[in-house]
Amino acid sequence: MSLDTREVLTLQLGHYANFVGTHWWNIQESSFVYSTKATGLKEINHDVLFREGLTLNNEVTFTPRLIAVDLKGSLNALRSAGILYDVNSPNDHINWSGDVTLHKFDALTSKNEFLTDLEKEEAGLLEKGSSKDSQEKDELENVDDKSDKVEMTEGVFRTKLYDLDRSVSVWSDFLRLHLHPRSLCLIEDYAHNDEDRPFEVFGSGQQLMADKKYSQELEDKIHYFTEECDQLQGFHILFDQYNGFSGLTTQLMQDLVDDFPNKSSIAFGLYPPLVEDMTAKSNATRLINTMLSLEKLMEHCSLILPMSLSTNPWYKHPNIQHFPHIQYKPDLNYHSSAVLAASLDTSSLPYRQVTGGMNMSDITDSLNILGRKVASVQTSLPFTIHPNQTLVSTLTTDDIHWTSLTPLTKADTVKPTYQQSVVCRGISNSRVRGRLDSHRQSGNHLLQNCSTVQELMTLYYSERHAGTKTVVSTFQDKMKTVAPFPHIFSKKIGSHGQIQDTERSNLQGVEEVPAMTAIQSTDDMFSMLDFLHKNSMRINIKKMHNFIETGLEEDDWTECINNIASASVNYCRP
Q1: Based on the number of CB atoms within 10 Å of its own CB, is 103 exposed (0-12), middle (13-18) or buried (19 or more)?
Q2: Where are the alpha helices (H) located in 261-380, listed in sequence order?
Q3: pTM value?
Q4: N or C: which end of the chain has fewer CB within 10 A?
Q5: 360-391, pLDDT tens digit by residue?
Q6: Which of 172, 198, 208 is nearest to 80 (CA)?
Q7: Going by C-beta distance under 8 Å and a sequence separation of 6 or more, which residues neighbour residue 22?
Q8: Which residues are registered as beta bridge partners of 199?
Q9: Per-residue pLDDT tens over the stretch 244-283
Q10: Three-point CA angle 166, 12, 419, nearest 5°
Q11: Could you tell me what percentage of the chain is helix, strand and coil, using 3-state DSSP and rounding each to the nearest 5?
């Protein structure tokens, strides 16, 4: 582990949050370099979000520093103990103290093609690792066996294409890495997709945290992961903000603040673009959950980022966000969560880089000034530069296609902005300018004098957003989108994320893409908070029996409405 790790603990609370988180961990694991012959500058310090451990055979492992909470019945064939931590063997020695919970799954649960291939690959690695003379045997293997192994390696970890749209029902159906046995926490009091007793209201989550069985389990897990950290930065909180996990999250955040008062926290409030129940009561339920959680998180969180591919998840007829080069199915959580995870991965790069990086607190402190704790997220995915263009010409012609991932906010690069953190990845310095740029008509000839992406983007935003505090971070590496990332990119996007005139072959996937994100504190947040405030006032809370039965009082609801109204004023310019 690096001496300057600056660790972050991630908590995923809720089923959709775990969808997003699973894609995020897969993206990160795809960028790991296992070869000792690899060349090039290492940009990302994976020790920030991952932890090193040992298997029962004293082999080094790398697992997410993660606590994932979900309901009973949501795991399917999840390999929670897997081949790394087989606690059933009588000769095994556990390398950590305390209880170990083994989450079993039904043997009849079918595995999709990706998980089946992954299991075969792991079995091969385990067999290879247990053999003392495995290296000699590998060299003597016949051609057929060798070709099979090469295909498996490329299939699972690189180039093989999988169609998982119909076979992914829960997030564990596409998880490509192992989790530590202490990472999972299952809520046994509620079942996944239980229509008779849904986990849908804020108070239900608060009641769970009042139960010592769950609060103590989560506290033990948090302390287990944090106590091994040398320089803990803070916490990522990915949570379902539309159901009962909103209440569980806010109570958990209050406990985190009590135990770690000086650590930063970023809460990602997540919403799927489409839900099955779009009745008036269901919409009101999601809105109340959002209001109650926002009020509490504004008090306990460093920064809150609501994220969805729905322009308004509290409206009965939601509009879905569209992208120039992405064709996703909004009814598949497997698709929509991939877009959010890609943006989360890119936006968090500044405090995960190896050298010269900032801390999470640098981001949160610069964005939450004057009580503006709610910010928006924009993305350009993939960030494309046409073959006959350079980065200079792309910027000067406003040819960046931004999409807002925060409900009721606009993707406008010239709108008034208080503070922002902009990240650009995957653009080589060789694409900054070309011979023709000096002859093109441009509003700013100074951009043409820049030689690096960092220099160009910094100058561009200093003039584009004059008076705005903008932190620009650039990275050379593109974002990996190999299996099991869904096939959502248009045929005009090449295998390495470049836009091209000819369509990509059906036998070829997109392995990596450039991307840009911007976390912004803007006037737009007033529009979102004002919408929530005005529509909350129309709700007769006395008729929302499921909230009243779980402890919500009318005075508390009125106070919540008033607090959100007061918070919205922070986004009004004098």
Answers
A1: middle
A2: 280-300, 333-347, 360-367
A3: 0.90
A4: C
A5: 999 999 999 999 999 999 999 999 999 889 99
A6: 172
A7: 171, 172, 174, 175, 337, 341
A8: none
A9: 999 999 999 999 999 999 999 999 999 999 988 888 999 9
A10: 110
A11: 40, 15, 45
